[in-house]
Write a structure and sequence with these properties.
about 375 residues, Rossmann fold, Rna Polymerase Sigma Factor, Chain: A, 7-stranded parallel beta sheet, 16 helices, about 15% strand
């Protein structure tokens, strides 16, 4: 029997990579549902190729542009929920930003396999995600390359043998820029990642190192390690995706060609490995691997993420929400690149502090406060 897959965010970089995996492994999977927010042209191409039973968009005007027959057209968050409850074996959540939180919770509630690429879900509600995993007997397999690496490495050792877990970061396009140079970068510059081809939000987050900060928070909730045992190394080649530092002063590492099809295939196949059409990594030839610590003076967003994780749940929600607002402002040329962490820090200083949050209503209360206050600072020129 083929596994039925719902792909949320099918027209983004992760969604497209997911469909490439399904196309290569069509004897194992079939597409039950697809969703997108903006790119209906690509969605129509995907509909024609994969023949889903459900298609969901977020805008009534986009709904009218969908072509084809033989499937049900759904709208908005309610449509996503209906598609998730339509009987998939696997839900791939590749939605960007806080939009992915509700679909994550819905997938966990039905006890399906959740292949999660939406890190913001865990950043905003990691404590609740862990509760849902236990309560509903669901399975979450991370799709981020770094978390997939750590997920696989941790299966090979006893947890009491692990001193720390280490996430790697490429450093983004500005890793060698001075502070003065960083003040002058433009949105177009920030959207040119040296290794990965990703959507605008995650590409910008990679340039500020906020993406790695969010991944540190995600790792805390996925793997249950205290913040002091989660480290980050800059690794420009993006070949080594995760490391375990062990108590006997040895290390275990996961290396792979930098392509998201690898962790996606591992998640779709529920921790089995299958052949994928990718270039060979080439470790039999000369290969340079570079590592050095992140510079949180030039890239303070990573430091803010660590501080938010130490402070508690409300700080993590505030960090994520404020970052979404200021990232949009930068991409719209309203603020400088270096303003991004400054504004986020000011919002964090004023946020309504709550160390432990156990319900989604409180999550959304903090979200709306942080969004409103960040927008107010932007209006006032902060």
């Amino acid at each position: 029997m083929k596994k039925k897959v719902v792909v949320l965010g099918s027209t983004g970089s992760i969604g497209k990579a997911t469909l490439r995996v399904i196309d290569e492994q069509k004897d194992r999977f079939e597409v039950l549902g697809l969703s997108c927010k903006e790119n209906v042209k690509t969605l129509n191409e995907q509909i024609e190729r994969f023949r889903p039973r459900y298609v969901c968009v977020f805008d009534e005007n986009k709904k009218r542009l969908i072509k084809g027959k033989g499937f049900k057209i759904l709208l908005g968050l309610d449509g996503l929920k209906e598609m998730i409850h339509a009987g998939p074996d696997i839900v791939v959540n590749a939605l960007p930003g806080s939009t992915g939180l509700i679909p994550t919770m819905e997938a966990l509630k039905i006890g399906t396999v959740l292949a999660l690429a939406n890190k913001e879900s865990v950043v905003m509600a990691g404590r609740i995600v862990r509760e849902y995993l236990e309560k509903y007997k669901a399975k979450l397999i991370p799709v981020d390359s770094e978390h997939s690496a750590l997920y696989q490495l941790l299966k090979t050792v006893n947890r009491d043998e692990v001193k720390s877990i280490i996430l790697t970061a490429s450093g983004g396009p500005f890793k060698d820029f001075s502070k003065d140079q960083l003040k002058k970068v433009r949105p177009a510059d920030a959207l040119k990642h040296p290794i990965w081809k990703m959507g605008k939000k995650i590409t910008l987050d990679s340039a500020t190192l906020m993406n790695k900060g969010l991944e540190v928070i995600e790792a805390r909730w996925l793997f249950g390690f205290d913040v002091d045992r989660i480290k980050v190394l800059i690794h420009p080649e993006s070949i080594l995706h995760g490391l375990l530092e062990l108590i006997d002063e040895s290390f275990m590492a996961y290396m792979a060609y930098p392509d998201m099809m690898i962790p996606i295939s591992y998640a779709l196949n529920q921790e089995e490995r299958h052949a994928i059409s990718l270039p060979k990594l080439g470790i039999d030839s000369a290969m340079k691997l570079t590592f050095y610590p992140p510079d949180v003076d030039r890239f303070p967003a990573l430091k803010l993420a660590y501080e938010a994780l130490k402070e508690g749940d409300s700080a993590q929600i505030t960090l994520n929400t404020s970052n979404e607002v200021v990232s949009t402002a930068f991409l719209e040329n309203k603020i400088r690149f270096t303003d991004i962490p400054v504004i986020i820090e000011r919002v964090l200083e004023r946020h309504p502090k709550k160390e432990i949050i156990l319900d989604l209503e409180s999550v959304w209360e903090i979200y709306h406060w942080a969004k409103g206050y960040t927008e107010e600072l932007l209006r006032k020129g902060y």
